[in-house]
Amino acid sequence: MATKDPTAVERANLLNMAKLSIKGLIESALSFGRTLDSDYPPLQQFFVVMEHCLKHGLKVRKSFLSYNKTIWGPLELVEKLYPEAEEIGASVRDLPGLKTPLGRARAWLRLALMQKKMADYLRCLIIQRELLSEFYEYHALMMEEEGAVIVGLLVGLNVIDANLCVKGEDLDSQVGVIDFSMYLKNEEEIGNKERNVQIAAILDQKNYVEELNRQLNSTVSSLHSRVDSLEKSNTKLIEELAIAKNNIIKLQEENHQLRSENELILMRTRQHLEVTKVDVETELQTYKHSRQGLDEMYDDARRQLRDESQLRQDVENELSVQVGMKHEIELAMKLLEKDIHEKQDTLIGLRQQLEEVKAINIEMYQKLQGSEDGLKEKNEIIARLEEKTNKITTAMRQLEQRLQQAEKAQMEAEDEDEKYAQECLSKSDSLQRQISQKEQQLVQLETDLKIEKEWRQTLQEDLQKEKDVLSHLRHETQKIISLKKEFLNLQDENQQLKRIYHEQEQALQELGSKLCESKLKIDDIKEANKALQGLVWLKDKDATHCKLCEKEFSLSKRKPVRVCDSCHAMLIQRCSSTVP
């Protein structure tokens, strides 16, 4: 025979004890038929068994003073894994009467049972085996499959309602000993089991009805909350609808205003364009007229320039002629001077000859007179030539003055032409600038028109979106109306179920009252049977008088109907007038 592992045997024993305690607690609680308190023995034994299960395989932790072996450490770890368990941990730490970690662990187990979440908390703890390995050995019950089985069994405790007072209870000094006598079956319990079956069935029906009522209440509350949320959403949607309608009206008004403004802007732009067109046409006409006048003036100036240039060429030709003549005159003058010098030389020679030949003067007197006449003629010619040279010089001066005046007039004409050309260019530039400004205004107006068209398109799209939103809101309102109808139907069904529930409660109350009456009648019958032991039922022939009033039986005073020996035993041979 192979020896079993003692830790496995311990785990199996603890698992069986947990099964028995949980099963016994559920059966006794259902038969008990009300909320359990801390003095209920199966509940106390359940906590003891759970304490032994949690202590199995627990590691010993060394402290400064002693060795510590408590289950509060792994239970305190649940707060980190399950956030809803923080409330239990905080309330356990705030309890004033608890001083030891074991007492806190016992209070934690009681609060978890009252919350009906013990299975959820321990399931979170079992899943994290790496964290549990800090507190338990590898062969501990919480580290093996038995722990998961016990957690699965704890789910059944959610049907139990427990009301435990943890404040005043001394949980630190309690001794956790398992009472096995509670789980051993007696013959009396086997006999009473048949009676408890019916009561258990009635309690099951009651619990089933209560559970149905809870579910219905929860569904009704959820429906109420849903209806409230739907009504709130409906009111919000109605408000949003009203806001959307107001926005649509405002947008329509703004659209009308913008249309009117757009029409006014279009009219103004058209008028402005017409005015600008008329101005441009008039300016173009004036420009054409001015340009024709300028062309005519330019042609006149050109003609004047041509005439002046021709005059200048003529003057230059005359000047060149005069210069040639001047050169010729100068040459002639030079020749004359040479002649004069030569004549002077000759005169000197003649004087010398006269001096030398004074004697011959008389002879040469006639010759001298002739030479003097020639000299006079030559002097006259020289005077004439000098007058001609003076006239030529004055003419040259006049020609130079006329040239200077012509050059000044040409310069002034050129300056006037340049000024006129600059004025024409400035006017043309200003006109081009005005035309470019008008073109820019036209471009801006076209862009404004495009922007307005895009804005209209966006407004139309917004209107379409608002229409879609309105249709969606109408669809949602229809849905809300259908949900209201469903809610009304559910309310009717709830009322019908409440009526059924009240009828069933009345039926249960009547059954309970009938059961109580039947128990009382059974007790009365038992007492009557005890009292009537040894008595015999008389025959109808022999029963002629009533035993109480001692009157004869007749049609008015009839005999009682005999049912059985156990029922109506006290009414034997009594008349109908004395029957209670």
What's a concise summary of this model?
This protein has 580 residues and is mainly alpha-helical.
Could you please describe the fold and organization of this structure?
This protein has a two-stranded antiparallel sheet. The protein has 580 residues and is mainly alpha-helical. Helix 7 packs antiparallel against helix 9 (145-154). The radius of gyration is 72 Å and the shape is rod-shaped. Mean pLDDT is 78; it is low at 561-580. The protein has eleven helices and two strands. It comes from Rattus norvegicus. One of its GO terms (molecular function) is zinc ion binding. Residues 37-169 form the RUN domain. This is RUN and FYVE domain containing 2. InterPro entries: RUFY1-3, Run_dom, Run_dom_sf, RUN_RUFY2, Znf_FYVE_PHD, Znf_RING/FYVE/PHD.
Contiguous runs where pLDDT drops below 50 for at least 5 residues: 561-580
Q: Give the ordered list of helices and strands.
A: HHEEHHHHHHHHH
Class based on secondary structure composition and strand pairing: mainly alpha
Distance between the termini: 76 Å
Percent helix, as a range, is over 70%
Q: Biggest sheet: strands, sense, closure? A: 2 strands, antiparallel
Strand tally is 2
Radius of gyration: 72 Å
Strand adjacency order, main sheet = 1-2
**Number of helix segments?**
11
Shape by Cα distribution: rod-shaped
What portion of residues belong to β-strands?
under 5%
Mean pLDDT: 78
Element layout with pairings:
Elements: H1 6-32, H2 41-55, E1 61-62, E2 67-68, H3 72-76, H4 78-81, H5 86-94, H6 101-115, H7 118-127, H8 129-132, H9 145-154, H10 187-356, H11 365-531
Antiparallel strand pairs: 1-2
Helix pairs in contact: 1-2, 1-9, 5-6, 7-9, 10-11
